[in-house]
Specification:
Blueprint lengths: L2 E4 L4 E3 L5 H10 L2 E2 L6 E5 L7 E3 L15 H16 L5 E2 L12 E5 L2 E8 L5 H13 L2 E8 L5 E2 L3 E3 L2 H4 L3 E3 L2 E8 L4 E10 L4 E10 L19 H14 L7 H12 L25 H12 L8 E2 L17 H11 L3 E3 L5 E3 L9 H17 L6
Parallel strand pairs: 8-9, 9-13
Antiparallel strand pairs: 1-2, 1-3, 3-4, 4-5, 6-7, 7-8, 10-11, 11-15, 12-13, 13-14, 14-15, 16-18, 17-18
Helix pairs in contact: 5-9
Length: 382
């Protein structure tokens, strides 16, 4: 491991120390494991970064943890960063109530905060379980993702898998997430996250050097997005209708088959089956797939005046417990477009039929109309 308590009880690290300095410490100091409190040895050589190690006789759980150097140095960076700002930070502090040992733990006023620096992609249900146990204990969980999970594609797109979706926050009407670039010692805040596909999102990343960035700044509101979301949306709509896609995934194939069995073709879905809803970024299914299903299963067969229900409850909760409801957002948009109308609380009735276009030109013209309408409703997206 890269850090340990010295004989004065101070958490110390060998990170970025000179060889000479380390040799000196080897002779002069004794170090102790933060977890089991046993004494440790310093290992340094040509092949490895200098680190602390348990003696062979030790039974400490950390011995078998196999944490990567990247993870450890990231934790150490965050520890120092918070320490410099005057926070009393504990590393791997065992939280009895939760049976967890978050990477970092500290208190701000009456708020208790646990930081997890997550460098490897783990299943969303594990993230959800750990997040819930923190919330149950009244602790705010701050998940910071390793830069190794940050992939930028083009100017505005980021890798966005189920792992990323499970680590999103919602602050200031904005979906966002946090990354740490250990090498550059930089925090990256991905802001204005909007769903693009099942593996990509649109986002506006902001970069901050740890040297001049403070903890409260993590939660300040972002500026405007660096892209026009509607323009990108319009392009992907056009792409879906006009480009032949070979080798699509099984989910897409099933969706096309589903449409086919209903006598429809995927390039001729109505424009309103491809509406940009804010919570798309946290929903696992492509927007046009679930919207088409909603229209065909819950809208099309109903007579005008019938009640349209939102019975499907999709689980889309951010780490800070914001319950997103993409289907409800979708019905709101259908309302703005005049297809449904709200009567009473939570109840909507059908007001207008949705027509399926019969040829591409008609579909593209309808897309343009819907886009122009959404553009006039500037508050729809952000
Ligand atoms: Zn130990």
């Amino acid at each position: 491991m890269l850090y340990a308590y010295d004989d004065n009880g101070k958490l110390s690290s060998l990170y970025q120390l000179s060889k000479e300095h380390i040799e000196q410490l080897k002779k002069e100091k004794t170090y102790f494991c933060p977890t089991c409190k046993e004494s440790l040895q310093i290992r340094s050589g040509r092949l490895h970064t200098a680190h602390f190690a348990h003696f062979p006789s030790s039974n400490c759980e950390r011995k078998h943890l196999g944490e990567s150097e990247y993870h450890e140095s990231g934790k150490w960076l965050l520890y120092q960063w918070l320490n410099r700002q005057g926070y009393d930070v504990a590393m791997e502090f065992f939280l009895k109530g939760t049976n967890q040992r978050p990477d970092l733990f500290f208190t701000v006023g009456d708020k208790r905060i646990a930081i997890e620096f997550q460098c490897s992609s783990i299943p969303p249900d594990i993230i959800e379980k750990r997040t819930q146990s923190f919330h149950d204990a009244g602790i705010f969980p701050l998940w910071i993702i390793g830069k190794n999970q940050y992939r930028q594609k083009g100017k505005h797109q980021l890798l966005h898998t189920s792992f990323h979706r499970s680590l999103m926050y919602r602050f200031h009407n904005n979906f966002m997430m946090y990354y740490l670039d250990v090498k550059a010692q930089t925090i990256i805040i991905a802001d204005h996250i909007q769903g693009a596909s099942t593996t990509l999102c649109y986002a506006t990343p902001r970069f901050y050097s740890l040297k001049s960035f403070t903890f409260p700044q993590l939660f300040t509101s972002a500026s405007y997005p660096s892209f026009s979301y509607l323009n990108i949306w319009k392009k992907s709509m056009y792409h879906l209708r006009t480009t032949y896609h070979r080798g699509v995934g099984s989910e897409e194939r099933q969706w096309r088959q589903y449409l086919y069995l209903k006598g429809k073709h995927f390039t001729l879905i109505p424009s309103v089956c491809f509406l940009p809803v804010p919570s798309q970024s946290i929903y696992h299914m492509k927007s046009y797939m679930w919207q088409t299903r909603f229209i065909l299963d819950h809208f099309l067969d109903k007579p005008i005046g019938d009640v349209i229900k939102n019975e499907q409850k999709v689980r889309c909760t951010t780490i800070n417990q914001y319950q997103a409801d993409p289907i409800h957002e979708y019905i709101l948009l259908l309302g703005k477009l005049g297809f449904v109308e709200k009567v009473g609380s939570g109840e909507w009735v059908k007001r207008k039929e949705i027509q399926f276009p019969t040829h591409i030109d008609q579909a593209l013209e309808e897309d343009k109309k819907v886009m122009d309408f959404l553009r006039s409703e500037t508050n729809v997206l952000l």
